[in-house]
Amino acid sequence: MEGESGSGSGEVKKQKLKLYSFWWSTCSVRVRIALNFKEFIKLNPSGNVPVLVDGDTLVADSFAILMYLEDKYPHHYPLLPQDIHKRAINYQAANIVSSSIQPLQKVATLKCIEEKISSDPDVKLAWAQHYIKKGFVALERLLKDYAGRFATGDEVYLADLFLAPQIHAAIKRFNVDMTQFPLLSRLNEAYNEIPAFQDAMPEKQPDTPLASAS
């Protein structure tokens, strides 16, 4: 689809960018938030995993897509702070979500548990909750000295793009008690006030079955 033109030194000419994603995927939500902040594309979710097509370039994996967008369009809302230490904190937070939480709650993992261990839905839920909570404990410890309105200060950065969909999934899909995580709960309240986050959430996507079910 055609993107919108920017202005000034960060001007972006019309781009034929297309995102293939899945409405419920937290990885896809990360990318949709970034694109909303970059403000030059409308999304067309239509696939199973986040894959960005930019002309002849195809980029898969949400982390790779975010870094590609940041490198190509640095003037359209930077996703990383200039301070190198804060950058490292952003990378750490993103890594906790993408490596220590999301792979253990994804559909393929839970399906494997159902097939190999138990078909009891409570077993799958307990598994997911265990690893989400373990990751959230680590995130609370990591961010306690850096968080402002958002994860690493008063601007939205990479860590927030990973945190927002993960917290959303924890609440909506896995019934995690967020009273145990006051910092993450506060961040979630801030994300809920920002259209760029909310417009990227699963319920707002064209392929969501939730609208027809409600």
Commentary on this structure:
The chain is mainly alpha-helical and 214 residues long. The protein contains nine helices and three strands, in the order E-H-E-E-H-H-H-H-H-H-H-H. Helix 4 packs across helix 5 (121-143) and helix 6 crosses helix 7 (182-191). The protein starts with 16 loop residues before the first strand and ends with a helix. It has helices at residues 26-38, 62-72, 84-105, 107-116, 121-143, 158-172, 182-191, 195-198, 210-213, and strands spanning 17-20, 51-54, 57-60.
Category from helices, strands and their pairing: mainly alpha
Share of residues in strands: 5-15%
Dominant shape: globular
Return the average pLDDT rounded to an integer.
82
Task: For the structure shown, list the relevant keywords.
single chain; 214 residues
Lay out the secondary structure.
Blueprint: E1 17-20, H1 26-38, E2 51-54, E3 57-60, H2 62-72, H3 84-105, H4 107-116, H5 121-143, H6 158-172, H7 182-191, H8 195-198, H9 210-213
Antiparallel strand pairs: 1-2, 2-3
Helix pairs in contact: 1-2, 1-6, 3-5, 3-6, 4-5, 6-7
Short overview:
Helix content is 52%, strand content 6%. With 214 residues, the chain is mostly helical.
